[in-house]
Amino acid sequence: MAVxxxxxxxxxxxxxxxxxxxxxxxxxxxSQIRSxxxxxxxxxxxxxxxxxxxxxSFLFETNKLHExxxxxxxxxxxxxxxxxxxxxxxxxxxxxxxxxxxxxxVYLHNLTEQIPKTIYVNLEQPSRxxxxxxxxxxxxxxxxxxxxPRVSNAITEYKDYKICFLHGMPTGRLGVIETQGxxxxxxxxxxxxxxxxxxxxxxxxxxxxxxxxxxxxLAQGKISVNKITSYLxxxxxxxxxxxAIGFYLERSGxxxxxxxxxxxxxxxxxxxxxxxxxxxxxxxxxxxLYYPKGL
Length: 295
Description:
Elements: H1 8-11, H2 13-22, E1 27-28, H3 30-44, H4 52-61, E2 65-72, E3 75-82, H5 87-92, E4 99-100, H6 102-108, E5 118-122, H7 138-146, E6 155-158, E7 161-166, E8 176-180, E9 186-190, H8 192-201, H9 209-218, H10 225-235, H11 241-252, H12 257-264, E10 272-273, E11 281-284, E12 289-292
Parallel strand pairs: 5-7, 10-12
Antiparallel strand pairs: 1-3, 2-3, 4-5, 6-7, 8-9, 11-12
Helix pairs in contact: 6-8, 8-10, 9-11, 11-12
């Protein structure tokens, strides 16, 4: 009876598997798999004729590697995953500079009792030369907040989650930290102060204004209001979001007057809005702010 000879990859199987097991990263772009093959081809004694497709097919046979396709409306992203990884790590693999933000960051900092099923991942836009901002006018603010906000349609699905890809303003990754995720692996996410600012600016990515208010309550004792004001100055928004932040701090009922007064040091030249397209509104004279009735 003829004995089937093992291929070089079969002979090197344990070494190949150990290489992937020992790697810190478990999610790979196709180009990274190609690089791993080329860097280790000599050590594994693989034939020069071994192709990337043959190598990937062999890795699939180990039952350790599987392919994930993330289908966005305008693009398709392929990732190879070794073993089990969290949806958060998969979302971050979209770009090495991306970080978790908005409702995802709210959840990861334990500022909500909900378990959001949409993962928000932000990749900042590149800095562009400033051509000067048009002066802010009350009529323009009123018109902007009567309309629906612009929202990202770069959304895909993975298991029980949706992944929403955002292109935020350039901040130099202000307030982005590395922390331990639910699976014990490090993830990039906005710190608590930056998270509250982002949630204030885009409440529709953060569970809505009621959830944002709850986040401010639960953040008491975890944040530095001084850091929030420092971030605001660096981010230099055109709109007066400091009025909304001051309102949240005051309305939450858990911050001191000295903390709240840090936001009163900013100018309040205009009436502002807590969110878009409010049907029934109340008005805060302290913050010159319209907010949903009943908040």
